[in-house]
Amino acid sequence: MFYSFPITIAAGNTVDNKVKIEMPMSAGVIHQVDILFPDTANHNIRIQVFDANFQLWPSNRAGTIRGDASVISFRDFYELRSENNTLSGVGWWEDTLTEVTIWVQIGILPRAAFARRSTLIGGGYVRESTP
């Protein structure tokens, strides 16, 4: 499954008035995250993603993701359980007066996709194993 969430950041969304959106998804393992910045972002938009009060991305606390005409794309393997499968996206402007929409896209695989894995053993042979 692949989810896409817009975060529209208006001129009034400053560090003291951050916009926050809920991003509900199915249970599973997040395997891909893409954050799309338009060419009007000018590295002035700050984005953070949280699971409850825990900052997931970027991993350094109080850090932010920003860009301009770029896609910040990375792999992660973070499990969302059925009882807690909503992340939140937080964003704000640093120095601008226009509105822009950032897209947060998240790929999730069912946990069963990770039930079987390949293990490298001596001599370069691959053996299928289960956890």
Question: What's this model, at a glance?
Answer:
The chain contains no helices and ten strands. It is mainly β and 131 residues long. It has a four-stranded antiparallel beta sheet, with no helix packed on it. A four-stranded antiparallel beta sheet has the order 2-7-4-5, with no helix packed on it.
Characterization of this structure:
Helix content is 0%, strand content 55%. By secondary structure, the protein is mainly β. The protein has one domain: Sandwich (Jelly Rolls). It has a four-stranded antiparallel β-sheet with strand order 1-8-3-6, with no helix packed on it. The protein has a four-stranded antiparallel β-sheet with strand order 2-7-4-5, with no helix packed on it. It has a two-stranded antiparallel sheet with strand order 9-10. Strand 9 (117-120) and strand 10 form a beta hairpin. The chain starts with a strand and ends with a strand. Mean pLDDT is 87; it is low at 118-127.
Low-confidence stretches: 118-127
Quick one: overall form? Answer: elongated
Strand content: over 45%
Overall pLDDT score: 87
Strand order of the largest sheet: 1-8-3-6
Would you report the number of β strands? Answer: 10
Structural class: mainly beta
Q: Which percent bin holds the helix content?
A: under 10%
N-to-C SSE string, H for helix and E for strand: EEEEEEEEEE
